[in-house]
Design goal:
The protein is an alpha/beta fold. The chain has 2 domains: 194 residues, NAD(P)-binding Rossmann-like Domain (Rossmann fold, 3-Layer(aba) Sandwich); 198 residues, Dihydrodipicolinate Reductase, domain 2 (2-Layer Sandwich), CATH 3.30.360.10. Helices cover 39% and strands 18% of the residues.
Length: 425
């Protein structure tokens, strides 16, 4: 988005970078009325993204005038939880480790749980948080298979009944330029009818360069980004961001997916290098999705939607007639801080908010594309997510090992460099 003046976000970044002290009452007006409230947060998954989410939550608390306390930490590896505990001043007795450490965290007095583990574990952890009556921030994607997506949707419905807030880490849905553009073109129809579009996450190679040769469950967790069962493959783990924008601007998940892909360069894990998927959203609207992780190629991460009266990249038409942004919600200096501002803002309001369904549907759409590429078949939303009787093998498709296998000690190590081949019988 092009700025013609100094936006609040840029003002915040400039002022804070220059060491200017901004008091919450002066800068945020009505939001300062809640100054002094305390919210206790806990983190499951103490890697880089998890620690970043906690840092963002602490900054969001300062902006809103809340006292945000890091009250408990959990990680598959306790030494990582302990290191994060040193960073956030959490005592060792509140730093839990092991595949069931999330259960220990749920037994504490944390009110808000931030979840940043491998996607495989997200449905199990979210169910536990909702059962314990805790609000949640869930990183994307939220599952690796269709049953996992449906578990997340069900947990979101239960959270609403309990009056809980679930905020998802689909960061562009928290970006004000995207929010306003969506309001203008998808809600108010400023550009008329949507005809077609494309979304992309084409970048260089990521994660392990050499074979991993795993021998234990711990090896899989340490290198989870390389494994289908833990990450969902990169179309799910990363391209879900862009597929989520397609769902959002189309106003619905796709009816079907037809795709292809292959493994050409990777030596580690069991994932593809690229995917190309045609998503049919009905009413003649098709969105082309492409993602690739190969060095030395053309790169593009973004969106392009073609309308009757023009086009948008999803964030460059921030001119709605009515703002969709709630009064009193401040704009943060980054999308990641905005995610945590949204968590605290809605938890403080005391009203339920469910972002679990939207992120689960976007995750499921990515899984549709992956499944089509792996098999060569056209995959239908109704078969995968709605009707258990049409294609039971697809509706019940469960990747192994499961999250429960890690707790039970029944993990079977997947074969490295063995991947599906479409069209074979």
């Amino acid at each position: 988005m092009k700025h013609t003046g100094l936006s609040r976000r840029r003002f915040m970044r400039t002022a804070l970078g220059a060491g200017v002290a901004l008091s919450a009452p002066a800068f945020l007006g009505g939001a300062a009325q809640a100054q002094g409230k305390t919210f206790k947060i806990g983190l499951i998954g103490c890697g880089g993204r998890g620690r970043g989410a906690v840092t963002d939550a602490l900054e969001a608390g300062k902006i809103l005038g809340f006292n945000v306390q890091v009250a408990a930490l959990a990680d598959y590896f306790r030494d990582r939880a302990l290191r994060a505990g040193e960073l956030f001043k959490v005592p060792p007795e509140r730093c839990f480790g092991g595949p069931a450490s999330y259960q220990n965290l749920m037994e504490t007095d944390v009110q808000i749980v931030l979840m940043a583990t491998a996607p495989l574990f997200r449905p199990l952890h979210l169910e536990a948080a909702v059962k314990s009556g805790k609000h949640a921030f869930i990183e994307k994607p939220v599952a690796v298979d269709p049953p996992g997506c449906r578990r997340v949707i069900a947990a979101g419905e239960e959270a609403k009944r309990k009056g809980l807030v679930i905020i998802a880490g689909t960061e562009m849905r928290h970006d004000w330029s995207f929010i306003k553009t969506h309001q203008a073109v998808a809600v108010e129809k400023a550009l008329g009818k949507l005809y077609a579009g494309r979304v992309s996450f084409c970048i260089a190679h990521m994660f392990s360069e050499q074979p991993i040769n795993p021998t234990s469950a711990d090896d899989l967790v340490r290198t989870w980004q390389n494994w289908l069962a833990l990450s969902g493959d990169h179309i799910v783990e990363q391209h879900v961001h862009n597929i989520d924008i397609a769902n959002w601007f189309c106003g619905r998940p796709p009816l079907s997916a037809v795709g292809f892909g292959a493994r050409a360069r990777r030596r580690a894990g069991d994932m593809y290098d690229f995917f190309s998927v045609d998503y049919d959203y009905g009413d003649g609207v098709h969105i082309h999705s492409m993602c690739r992780q190969v060095n030395g190629c053309w790169d593009w991460v973004g969106h392009d939607f073609i309308y009757e009266k023009g086009r948008t990249n999803g964030s460059d038409y921030a001119q709605p007639q009515q703002s969709p942004l709630p009064a009193g919600l401040p704009q943060g200096p980054s999308d990641h801080v905005q995610e945590q501002l949204d968590v605290l803002y809605y938890v403080n309001k005391g009203e339920p908010l469910d972002q679990a369904r939207a992120v689960a549907e976007s995750t499921a759409a990515a899984i549709m594309g992956r499944t089509s590429a792996y098999t060569g078949a056209q995959v239908f939303w109704e078969e995968m997510m709605v009707d258990p009787n049409k294609r039971p093998e697809l509706y019940n498709l469960t990747l192994k090992p499961t999250a429960e296998d890690f707790e039970k000690g029944t993990v079977e190590i997947p074969k490295e460099n063995v991947v599906p081949a479409a069209g074979t019988r």
